[in-house]
Design brief:
23% helix, 6-stranded mixed sheet, 2 domains, 36% strand, 19 strands, alpha+beta, 452 residues, 7-stranded antiparallel sheet, PmbA/TldD fold, single chain
């Protein structure tokens, strides 16, 4: 990517305009008798271009703006939203939210965050806004470059699901009746490619993509396509393996899903509903003793960075898992009140979650495993949040003698998440930075593999 970026089009709303709209909405809520209110005003522009077999398939462009307001009459809550930001539409939206609140049941946990937990002061720049300013013609050329690089990998790549180049720039303001008013712009750029290979009438597909706040930090389009092609070719000749038990190595590309299952179980909604296998586990060993998980919302330039959460509560850097011991939950103000605990600043989800890397890269973990199943793709949603029982379709490679052998498909891996977490042998140094969870490959001591 070039060191400098072309000028991007302006967002639909200026920050001063969003501030004024938020103020008008809060004033209207007060006038209608709301004890408290919270409003978010947002604006975004985006572009997405898809190419298949060198021909343009889609060109999409969006230019959006909107307002969402939540009002409180005591402990009764109502919310409404609109994309029409005229004065009349804003007034009608606030009236709708108030009408809803008057007809809802009282909930002792409902309400704005405690004032002392809200972010105060200036917002230091976290480097989250890097508008790409890419023309449609330039985006088409990048997509063609990615697809052509994938098709050039091997003549057995006979078809393509296309390549896509997209960008999105957004800004927002969050405000409430307790004096909070803040917001910041963000951007996101991505390049992705997916192709199909055919050998002896058997087809396989795979993909690769790169995404970042700053388009200058994207992988080159040709590299994205090449990797997609290489991943597809190596899946040819896949077969099932016998049913049994063996170590399982989750490739970094899908290992983050294990952290996702952990976050879901450690989140307030599942805890207060008593639908989590982590109930009663705070302060206890949940992972292997060498596992460390850090939440760091203040990392510059990352996808889930921010000084405050979706309610305006100040975020904090904290250790979620320390030496395998569970040290913290992911709570909003509502779920925290339901549990009788303080909020952790996680309204809207977890922030940058980092699994501490170990000493081995993927090749080193394969050697460490010796014999077992390297999983590179997962299918299905077979995770029971109450019991932690885990069962998902999988594809990947069989490992023998510390070397990657033949590809594997149409098998199921099964276990229990608590046993899997405690059975983590090693975490890889091949950390993949995507989205809100960052981790390398994860080697689990033993799982059941259902095959032939």
């Amino acid at each position: 990517m070039p060191d400098t970026l072309p000028e991007a089009p302006a967002l639909p709303l200026a920050r001063e305009t969003m501030n004024a709209i938020a103020g008008r909405a809060l004033e209207a809520a007060r006038h209608l008798g709301a004890a408290d209110a919270e409003v978010e005003v947002s604006a975004a522009i985006g572009q997405s271009v898809s190419v298949r077999r060198g021909e343009v398939e889609t060109v999409e462009y969006n230019r959006d703006k909107g307002l969402g307001i939540t009002v409180y009459f005591g402990n009764r809550r109502g919310n409404a939203s609109t994309s029409d930001l005229s004065s009349e539409a804003i007034q009608r939206t606030v009236e709708a939210a108030c009408a809803i609140a008057r007809h809802t049941a009282s909930d002792d946990a409902a309400g704005l965050p405690d004032t002392d937990r809200l972010w105060r002061g200036e917002l230091p720049d976290l480097g989250l806004f890097h508008p790409w300013g890419l023309s449609v013609e330039a985006a088409i050329e990048l997509a063609r470059t990615a697809e052509a690089a994938a098709l050039a990998v091997d003549p057995r790549i006979t078809n393509t699901e296309g390549a896509t180049v997209s960008s999105n720039d957004a800004d927002f303001v969050l405000a409430n009746t307790r004096g909070f008013l803040a917001g910041y712009p963000t951007s996101r750029a991505s390049i992705g490619c997916s192709v199909v290979a055919d050998e002896a009438g058997t087809m396989q597909r795979d993909y690769w993509y790169s995404t970042h706040r700053d388009p200058r930090r994207l992988e080159a389009a040709a590299d994205v396509g090449r990797i997609a092609g290489e991943l597809t070719i190596r899946r040819l000749g896949a077969r099932r393996i016998p049913t049994g038990e063996a170590p399982v190595l989750f490739d970094a590309n899908i290992a983050g899903s294990l952290l996702g299952s952990f976050v879901s179980a450690a989140s307030g909604a599942n805890l207060y509903r008593r639908s989590s296998f982590l109930l009663g586990k705070l302060g206890e060993p949940v992972f292997a003793p060498h596992v460390e998980i850090l939440e760091d919302p203040h990392r510059p330039g990352e996808m889930s960075s921010g000084w405050f959460d979706a309610e305006g509560v100040a975020t904090m850097r904290r250790r979620i898992v320390e030496r395998g011991i569970l040290r913290g939950w992911f709570l909003s103000s509502y779920s925290a009140r339901k549990l009788g605990l303080p909020t952790t600043g996680n309204a809207g989800g977890n922030h940058n979650l980092l699994l501490a890397p170990g000493e081995h890269d993927l090749a080193g973990l394969v050697k460490l495993m010796g014999r077992g199943f390297l999983v590179t793709d997962l299918m299905g949603q077979g995770v029971n949040p109450v019991t932690g029982d885990y069962s998902r379709g999988a594809a990947g490679f069989w490992v023998e003698g510390g070397e990657i052998g033949h590809p594997v498909e149409e098998v199921t891996i099964a276990g229990n998440l608590l046993e899997m977490f405690r059975g983590i042998v090693a975490c890889g140094s091949d950390v993949l930075v995507r989205g809100s969870r960052q981790c390398g490959s994860i080697l689990v001591e033993r799982m059941t593999i259902a095959g032939e």
